[in-house]
From TrEMBL, chains A, B, C, D, E, F:
One of its GO terms (molecular function) is nicotinamide-nucleotide adenylyltransferase activity. GO terms for biological process: NAD+ biosynthetic process. InterPro entries: Cyt_trans-like, NMN_Atrans_arc, Rossmann-like_a/b/a_fold. The lineage of its organism: Archaea, Methanobacteriati, Methanobacteriota, Stenosarchaea group, Methanomicrobia. Residues 5-133 form the Cytidyltransferase-like domain. PANTHER family: BIFUNCTIONAL NMN ADENYLYLTRANSFERASE_NUDIX HYDROLASE, PHOSPHOPANTETHEINE ADENYLYLTRANSFERASE. This is Nicotinamide-nucleotide adenylyltransferase.
Amino acid sequence: MIRAFYIGRFQPYHFGHHTVITRIAEEVDELVIGVGSAQKSHEATDPFTAGERVLMLYNALEHLPIRHYVLPIEDVRYNSIWVHHVASRTPRFDVVYSNNPLVIQLFREAGFCVKESPLYIRDRYSGTEIRRRMIAGEKWEHLVPKPIVETIKDIDGITRLRNVSASDNNFSL
Amino acid sequence: MIRAFYIGRFQPYHFGHHTVITRIAEEVDELVIGVGSAQKSHEATDPFTAGERVLMLYNALEHLPIRHYVLPIEDVRYNSIWVHHVASRTPRFDVVYSNNPLVIQLFREAGFCVKESPLYIRDRYSGTEIRRRMIAGEKWEHLVPKPIVETIKDIDGITRLRNVSASDNNFSL
Amino acid sequence: MIRAFYIGRFQPYHFGHHTVITRIAEEVDELVIGVGSAQKSHEATDPFTAGERVLMLYNALEHLPIRHYVLPIEDVRYNSIWVHHVASRTPRFDVVYSNNPLVIQLFREAGFCVKESPLYIRDRYSGTEIRRRMIAGEKWEHLVPKPIVETIKDIDGITRLRNVSASDNNFSL
Amino acid sequence: MIRAFYIGRFQPYHFGHHTVITRIAEEVDELVIGVGSAQKSHEATDPFTAGERVLMLYNALEHLPIRHYVLPIEDVRYNSIWVHHVASRTPRFDVVYSNNPLVIQLFREAGFCVKESPLYIRDRYSGTEIRRRMIAGEKWEHLVPKPIVETIKDIDGITRLRNVSASDNNFSL
Amino acid sequence: MIRAFYIGRFQPYHFGHHTVITRIAEEVDELVIGVGSAQKSHEATDPFTAGERVLMLYNALEHLPIRHYVLPIEDVRYNSIWVHHVASRTPRFDVVYSNNPLVIQLFREAGFCVKESPLYIRDRYSGTEIRRRMIAGEKWEHLVPKPIVETIKDIDGITRLRNVSASDNNFSL
Amino acid sequence: MIRAFYIGRFQPYHFGHHTVITRIAEEVDELVIGVGSAQKSHEATDPFTAGERVLMLYNALEHLPIRHYVLPIEDVRYNSIWVHHVASRTPRFDVVYSNNPLVIQLFREAGFCVKESPLYIRDRYSGTEIRRRMIAGEKWEHLVPKPIVETIKDIDGITRLRNVSASDNNFSL
């Protein structure tokens, strides 16, 4: 039995994530998916709450054929303990999939087995680009799985993103 | 569609929790299960990590007939924001099931609908009693669903519980 | 111009506090009143929020003849910096009034001038006794200034206190 | 009885704030004024402590004809609970005045009534511009109410602002 | 080259600690000494600051024949990451000396080599007993190395301990 | 007896620091060296852990002729209490050496005696420049004392620095 770990911020969940997760699911028995920066929301780069992102993943991964855990992971104040923070919040896993050099470095220093994630076309599917389109009023719906569109509409996510982006994120005059 | 919320510490998950969750599942469409005090582990009253407890719930609830979310919830420093902390970490829910007077008071003040949990025989199924039996070397396995026994053995949980209970929990002479 | 500092938890504000503050007001030009443990509420020993306690003090001290500042002060994680934490949250003051040995020690070590508070009959006017009476359904209204009774009724404070006291303060089964 | 809420950082308090607060005071019965980012001081954009800013507001608003509360509000780590954090630190209020899109969004999502603040000429009265003038040695005193000038001189605020701005805010070589 | 780790709270440093450290020094090449609960001071069980305790250890260990590091270690909020927190604050070490079951359990789970500390007569040399004697005005000086007596006198430590113990440690009426 | 205080981040320790510390050591009896931002590591500007930096200083200062304390100092959330945080973590000192305007301002406001550090050629010896060279594969070894080269090689520090710098420091896609 091989259990893998994969982490993203999912702001929002898009076809890039979906491709990677679907591919990993073909190689392992179980997959732990960390919803990173769980404490963040209502920011220009992090508009959605952890709960909203969890819902996106449940909706998009309903038919993933292997058991998967969707678990919010809060940031910690310093990198040296981040891996152990993750480990204490998740079922024990055997391999980490990531393309992020920092994530790879931290897990390797801690003695974990790390593999490169299957690639996707990053230019096309990127949270940054999708949020830019949402604010600009351009088409973004084709870049995310269908249930994500619903979830974002239900919470009036575009209005929220525009407002939090219009602000300097500072509660003050 | 009715989505409910239920929270426990699950140190460990036992037949008391299992009965309640099974009953709630008959009344609602989806259930969000909060794994409370997620940051705690290796303490006499909280021996298991959030990740280990998540695994217990996934194993025990594999056949629960409704969609359920198992989400670690960390404690926060003050009660006045606890409900909103929970809300930001979970998909939106319509009703809270609880028998804890503080939980009920906090959710009611915040305008949530709260229902009493279905009851179980607390004297028999209690985390405190189960941990006492584990330390004393008495029989405890019949008080928890079978997969929980496996999970605890896999991590050598009895030894851990005994050691963390033998200590005054203070890293010092 | 002499500005003094006085701190209490005010759970709730009662005639003991009122007597002390009225007396200090006769000796100084301005008074900074710290509302301690500001982050706490909905606990058996700390049922009221900082905002509710601020309101109690504004209502009770409406006619205090000197300028007074009512400022919530959160607890800090360690005693060695508590005095400086207080100092950064308050207008500069010249003298501290307290009968609490720890408060006196901390301010003296930091070089502040400290005076004993004018005394009041502690057995009669004590937050602990008032909260006990509230829970037991005994008479408590004569122990607090009249506006405090209103404030507590407005927020249904007795019900809240009973519920948070009935719980073991632990969000879990 | 209508109680309103208004928040600013007041680094320093200036005629822009003063105009807005004076206008709001004509529309409501009581006003809660939050002193935002209360934990900050000795930074290029936040030179003054919460206590110093509280003093500025008390001095400038001595003759405001309605009851007003001046209450420091610390930042919290994440936006989703900020409104509830504010609510627990303040007497209950009926309406929020703000022009900040993020503040408006957060209070609206939490079900509060929000009104646009009365406007002032932002180009002229801005904390950023005033701090720039203080550092450059240009005239700034005409942009703030007279008592603010005194308060800042008493604490040698210009020297402090220059020193904290000269640094990269990093305690190190 | 073998580098060992040993941790204590040292409230205050006494002959029990001294015996253990001297013995460990005979078995290893370098010793890292953690000053635990570094953030605490001015409490009945933790009267001395980290800085004062560091000074005690430097004075008492001036002639220890091996290189030793005296490093304050703050508590962390949860046990599962404590070992990794320690590891990030200290030079890499090969072996841990401890008699505390929790410390042993945590380091063993993290894969460290742990040895039992050399024993000392705990009834005689205990921080609890020494602090009790200090408060009661009984003889305590013979239980600690001579430089410790000086250090405590220099900071008027007995007065501090008595005052912080007389208080219920709660900044309030 | 004069005890001085000096603080740096030491990312890594270089000849600039070494010159300053050696000079200060000629003027005072004891020197407390704070290792600033102790909680940081594995970041592009802060690659090394506190423990690794402590080891660098012990190795480089083995022959410093005066007693010196090497003590990690974590950042605190706000500047107003930073000085007191430092003071609680260190043996009492009489004078602070610094060229950082913020550090000077904070210690002066708190009543400490502050002296300008002896100067060194900053263009040549700068952590920023050394880290840039490490990443670029240029020569950096001549800019640090010899034992520092060993320490960094032992932990494969160059690889780590490159990886953490290649990332946007954000655990996510």
